[in-house]
C-alpha cells in the first residue's frame, strides 16, 4: 500500500509538469471509456438481454429493401404486398409470419392536433409476440379488410397523456388524418414495439411493407 501511494504521488507530479500530455491522456481515456460503454450497451441490448417477450429466442426479425426501392427510391405497395404473400405461401419453416410498417398521422378531435407514430401491423402481430392489451382486445380476423380496418389500439402513454387514462375509451372514436377510428384497446405500459418509445397507435396493416417478423415454431422441435 505504501508503494502504491508513492507511485500515485509520483504520477500526479509528472502529470502536473506536462499539462499538454495530461490533457491528451484524459481525452483519450474519456473517449475509450465512452466507446466501450456504447459498445457494451448495444451488445447488452441486442445480444445479451433478450427481447421482452415470451420465448424471445424463437422470434426472428428480417428487414430489407426491395430492388424496386433501391433502384428508383420509391416503394410500390402492390409489389411489397406481393412479396409478403409469396413469402407466407412458400414458407415451410416458421410457425407464423407477420409484417409491419409505420406512418405518421395527425390525431385530432378532443384537443389540439397531435402528430403520432402509427404502426400498421398484420393481424398476427400481437399473437406472435404474445402481447395482450391492458384493456380491450387486439384485431379480429376480418379487420384487415377494406371498410372494417378503421380500428385502433393506443399506447399506454398516449392513453394517459391524451385521454386521461379514461377506462371508457373503448368504443370511442378518434380521428387519424381526418378519418374516424374506433378504439378497441390500450396496450400495457412499456409496450411500444416495434419503434422503441415512439409508437403511439397500432392500426391494421394495409400497404407498404418494410419488415417481416418470423416466429419459429418448428426450428428446434418447438
| Percent of residues in beta strands | 15-25%
The largest sheet, given as strand count, sense and whether it forms a barrel, is: 6 strands, mixed, barrel
Distance between the termini: 57 Å
Low-confidence runs (pLDDT<50, min 5 residues)? 67-79, 207-212, 214-222
Number of helices: 6
Q: Please state how the strands of the largest beta sheet are arranged side by side.
A: 2-3-8-5-7-6
Q: State the shape.
A: elongated
Amount of helix: 25-40%
Mean pLDDT metric? 78
- Secondary structural class: alpha+beta
Number of strand elements: 9
| H-E string | HHEHHEEHEEHEEEE
Backbone CA Rg: 25 Å
Structure notes:
The chain is α+β, with helices and mostly antiparallel strands and 222 residues long. It has helices spanning 2-17, 19-48, 67-72, 77-90, 125-129, 156-163, and strands at residues 59-63, 96-108, 114-121, 135-136, 151-154, 173-176, 179-186, 199-204, 211-215. It has a 6-stranded mixed barrel with strand order 2-3-8-5-7-6. The radius of gyration is 25 Å and the shape is elongated. It starts with a helix and ends in a 7-residue tail after the last strand. Mean pLDDT is 78; it is low at 67-79, 207-212 and 214-222.
